[in-house]
Amino acid sequence: MAHQAAPGAGTRLFHPGFEGHSQISARTLGFWLYMLSDALLFTALFAAYAVLDTPMNAAGGPIASQIVNPIEGFWQTIAILASVTCYSLATVAMKNGNRAGTALGIIAAMVLAVVFLAFGFNDLATLTAHGNGLGRSGYLSAYFVLILTHAVHMLIGILWMLVMLVQIPRYGFNEMVVARMLNLRMFWQFQATVWVCVYIYVYMIGA
Amino acid sequence: MRLKPYLALLPVLALAACSSGDYRLFHPLNLIATQEWHATIVDTIVMLLIILPVLLVLALFGWRYRKGAGAAYDPDWSHNTALELLVWGVPFLVVAGLGYYSVKTIYAVEPYNPGLLQKQEAADPQSVLNVDVIATDWQWVFVYPDQHIATIDQLVVPQGSVVKMRLTSTSVSNDIFIPQLAPMIAVMPGMLTKDTFDAPALGNYTGFAADFSGAGFSWMQFDTKIVSPADFTAWTQQASASSDQLSYEAFQQVAQPHANIGAKISYFSSPDPQLFDKVVAAAQAGVVYPVPAALTKSIGSNEK
Amino acid sequence: MQVEVPGPWSPLLGRLTLDAIPYTNPILQGTFAGAALAGLIVIGCVLYFKKVGYLWREWLTSVDHKKIGVMYIIVGLVMLFRGFADGLMIRTQQVIANGPNAPGVLGAQHGFLPPFHFDQVYSAHGTIMILFAATPILTGFQNIVVPLQIGARDMAFPYMNALSLWLTTAAAALVMISLFVGDFSAAGWVGLIPLTELPFSPSTGVDYWMWAIQISSVGTTLNAINMIVTIVEMRAPGMTWFRMPVFSWTTLSTNIIGLTAFPVLGVALALLGADRYLGTHFFTAGYGGNLMLYTNLFWIWGHPEVYFLILPTFGILSEVIPTFSEKPLFGYVTMVAATFAIAGISWVVWLHHFFTMGSGPDINGFFSVATMLVGIPTGVKLFNWMFTLYRARITYSVAMLWAMFGLFLLLAGGLTGMMLALPAVNYTVHDSVFVIAHFHCMVLLVVASAFAGVTYWFPKLFGFKLNEGWGKAFFWTFSIATIIVFAAMFALGFQGETRRLDWTFNTAWKPMLMVEEIGMILYVVSLACFAIMLVVSIRNRAKNRVGADPWGTSRTLEWLTPSPVPFYNFAVTPQVNTRDELSWRRKHGLESAKPAGFEAIHMPSNTGMPVIIGALAGIWGFAMIWRIWWLAGISLLGIVVCVIIRSFNKNEGYHLQPQEIEAMEKNLATGAIVAEQPVRTHLHHVEAH
Q: How many domains does chain A have?
């Protein structure tokens, strides 16, 4: 590398017609990088939860084993994994150019996500009604914020699905729509993965 | 050329170093501070062994290889394995050595249980002086549980003692620092930290608050004295004679936020025997001493 | 669920009342008058020269990485000036308010700044310098230089690039607004905990600090994604990884740090925000909070952050030094390895910022050793620069002067850093001005290399060189001022002076404080030299026009383009044959080679959406600070709506035709005044086929 060859007959100085990068390749790589930053965000939240998950941080209020319901969490996990499956089926339909199938898969994914969120919000509302809201103790603050941050990500995903439901009939499966559908699939799978971590660490180990 | 400003620096530093007492870190007064000072010197010298030659070589190269100065020019020389091994290897060895030295000195001066003082504590348990320190906004409360007295902004210890402090805060975090004597340690509300130092030399010193804690922070100094054991006993008796008692309720008044401008010293007799633990527990239970905005604006200000 | 705020709150205006405007404060009166005057002059000039349309079309809606980079640097320089003003106030307060009998003016008992103001000034100084001056300036350099260095036409996501800029600008605007509406944080740039909790910081100051940082962090994260994808996907044909210039390598590693570290800061501040807004107990002393959690989370970001600043700095040095030594950089591969070693190790050293928190000897020991380990690759870089100078032909242009000064700062900062890495030493100098002097050596290294970069790349962007005489005057006054101020500060550290003191109670400190003040006066002189340099250079620009390679000895791809660079960068994408492509071409007489023909180029369209989203983000931040919930809701909804609307935009850009390119290239070759970039939006694009 330090001692480069002298230019020869085949040396080119310019490369006309260089097409550069593909939109889909760049957008999916960019989205992977965003998810890396999101993964760090959840890592920090899990670290905060781990630090605040001691009896002293419960400040006389409930600890994990007193508030988590692994059975209900199990059904939530089923709901979210089913939602991911439905969305993945939607992308299979997209591969086959099937607009109706895609829309159906997306709608099913949305419904299951709403079911998941309904369970979750109901859980948090019940806790709050009993005086164990997020201001009760450091532990509960960590529990609420971890669950709520995941819920906010789910809500954003649902909104994104709504937008896709409008864009697919309007634009068909052009480059932009496909890139977004692929990114949404990654996003949705990522959210399910985060939930699985929450379920294992907060619900199963906490119980 | 580039070196001149730095040459001018050296006499300034030398003068500075020769200056007496003001350079407190250069004048440690007990085992702990002496070890810390030695660590500073060792570290500096070891690093200078690398940095001074580099400085000189940089200046040399920068001067010698100026365009038009007629020195050799080797535009293709950009790689040398032996040199690379040297520049990775030598610093690695230096860091290994300094790392070992660092860990050794940490155990020696560790505020909770310094290795340097373990022998004295074991040999002469009577020389241990227990002091509970509570930082408020913006004063230092020193409670002597064994002598049944308390002070605000004055720490007096007998010569030859090993002072073991337990520290906490009523409000926000801070650091306690007595240059030449005690290593810095944080004080935090609802938590307990410890600091240990020996007191071989008589004298008057100033202790500081070192970690910003609000509008009254600049006035958080405290008087520190190392006195003879006889003088210490006399001082504790004088404090015991104070009519003020530091019950927990009285302490709550003391802890109300105000700046102790002038670091006025107060004495209390019969402090609550569980005062320190009560303060820690109260903080954990959510007791705070809020600082209203109006108070913050008025400290150190003559504005109406 | 909303926590009870101290002070009044109304549904319409939140916490905002007329009392929030400090119109009785004489310093702020003067500041406001000055800012208003400057603003009126700028707006007046724009209107007088009828440049409103030009500004909107050419700059504010631009997605051109070069223009965005220039705007980043302008924002950074403006904030650098504000940060310097804060620094000047700190130094002046400390020298006046020395000793028990120190005089007091303007309502202060000692000095001229009561603690309430002084504490905001130094908090603003730190926050601004790190996050709103250094970061935008370095981001600006990366934006401008990297696509050119790798032979690309723009960044991977031009729209997102503009969005990052306007988010950062909105956040900087919030910091500036805090001067005149409400106050700023008085808890340090790190947000000392639990001082930042509501009982101890009841005013909106901490909220300004918090939301400004959060908004700009989003911009930084988006920019990191953009830079990484650009470098991974858009290098010119033939530019393999090990042919890429070192500045692009450092940009890659720095943005990996940024991408992964900034979310942790976001969490730390969000949890603090939850404490302040929702009444949670993450960091309170009571009810089961853990304040050490904040300190750890903050510094887990905080330490990678300083490497986020220093790695692009090292990258600039690695470009400037070889150019003005007429030699390739020594040890290219190990430079890259050292860059990534630094980035990697930077993740496991954070605790050295709080050795005194009582973590115990085992933990302190681990972090001490880790901290010293990061010195090894840093040393390697220094040695490699040194060996680059060996048997070189060094020209002491202004850029090279800054670079050499930077190396000496690195030596001083590195020495003192290794001292701080030993807890036994740290226990005596933590939170003292010794630490301040250490990290100022490092951040002034960032500033020095930033000025090296400005001097170096200015001709490439604008087509004329900066005035060399005034550049040297600026350099010498600035560097000597730095030495004076910080040598004195190291001395004060050894005298035991601690930091953040509004009233410097020990009269023994007075002599060194006065020495520092002399240095500050010299800094003011240097700023004047900088301003004069700009004015003189712009005035003489016609006489100092330069071609593609103004320095004659540059080595990398960006110097193949004409100066100033046309908006499409390269008329035809270059084929890269080797590392340091330009010096290889120059060696074989190929540097002026022109392409045989031109083809149509696809360019992205301008758009005003990033400005709108940035403005909405600023409004949202303001609403959150003052707890004006309806406004916060509307502006957040507006941002979501804008993002969705934008996603429906076909944003296909437009095509530049070969004839247009040929004409523009001819103009550039003859040195004729460059025509304004033809205005293209998606409504006007010309189809090629």
A: 1
Query: Neighbours of A (≥3 Cβ pairs closer than 8 A)?
Result: B, C
Quick check: A56 and B78 CB within 8 A? Answer: no
pLDDT digits (tens, 9 = 90+) for B164-207: 999 999 999 999 999 999 999 999 999 999 999 999 989 999 99
Q: Contacts of residue A135 in chain B, CB cutoff 8 Å?
A: none
Question: C64 near C58, Cβ under 8 Å?
Answer: no
Residue of A nearest to C282 (CA): A138
Question: CB–CB of B79 and A2 under 8 A?
Answer: yes
C-alpha C76, offset from chain centre = 6
pLDDT, residue A158, reads: 97
Q: Which CATH class is domain B126-287?
A: mainly beta
CB of C183 closer than 8 Å to CB of B275: no
Query: Is the Cβ–Cβ distance between B270 and B243 less than 8 Å?
Result: no
User: Is C361 an 8 Å CB contact of chain A?
Assistant: no
- For residue B136, count other CB atoms closer than 10 A to its CB: 25
pLDDT tens digits for A34-70? 999 999 999 999 999 999 999 989 988 899 889 999 9
Q: Which residues of chain A does C242 touch, with a Cβ-Cβ cutoff of 8 Å?
A: 1
How far is the alpha carbon of C516 from chain A, nearest alpha carbon, in Å? 41
A108 occurs within a structural domain: yes
- C78-133 pLDDT, tens digit per residue, is 999 999 999 999 999 999 999 988 999 888 889 999 999 999 999 999 999 999 99
Closest by CA to B56, choosing from C389, C372, C418, is: C389
Write the CATH number for A111: 1.20.120.80
List the domain range (segments joined by +) for residue A135: 70-204
Q: What is the DSSP string of C619-656?
A: HHHHHHHHT-HHHHHHHHHHHHHHHHHHHT-----EEE
DSSP code per residue over C398-464: HHHHHHHHHHHHHHHHHHHHHHHTSHHHHHHHTTBHHHHHHHHHHHHHHHHHHHHHHHHHHHHHHSB
Taking CB atoms and an 8 Å cutoff, what residues of chain B touch A6?
A: none
Question: DSSP 3-state helix, strand, coil percentages of chain C (rounded to 5)?
Answer: 65, 5, 30
Looking at CA atoms only, how far is residue B96 from chain C in angstroms? 8
Give the span between the Cα atoms of C566 and C677, in whole angstroms: 9
**Segment among B24-38, C198-212, C330-344 with least mean pLDDT:** B24-38
Q: What's CA C106's distance to the chain center, in Å?
A: 33
Decide if C610 contacts C170 (C-beta within 8 A): no
Query: B192: distance to nearest CA of chain A, Å?
Result: 14
Q: Is residue A46 part of a domain?
A: no
**A21 inside domain:** no
Interface pTM (ipTM) of the complex? 0.95
Q: Where are the domains of chain B?
A: 4-64+80-109, 126-287
A26 contacts in chain C (CB < 8 Å): 156-157, 229, 233-234
Of C117, C39, C204, give the one whose Cα is nearest residue C503: C117
**Interface subset of C 514-543, CB within 8 angstroms of B:** none
Give the rounded percent of residues in chain B with a pLDDT score beyond 70.
92
Strand partners, B169: B135, B189
Q: Rounded to whole angstroms, how far apart are CA atoms C559 and C456?
A: 11
Distance CA B209, CA B177 (A): 6
Q: Is residue A30 part of a domain?
A: no
Query: pLDDT under 70 in chain B at which residues?
Result: 1-21, 303-304
Give Cα A31 to chain centroid, integer Å. 12
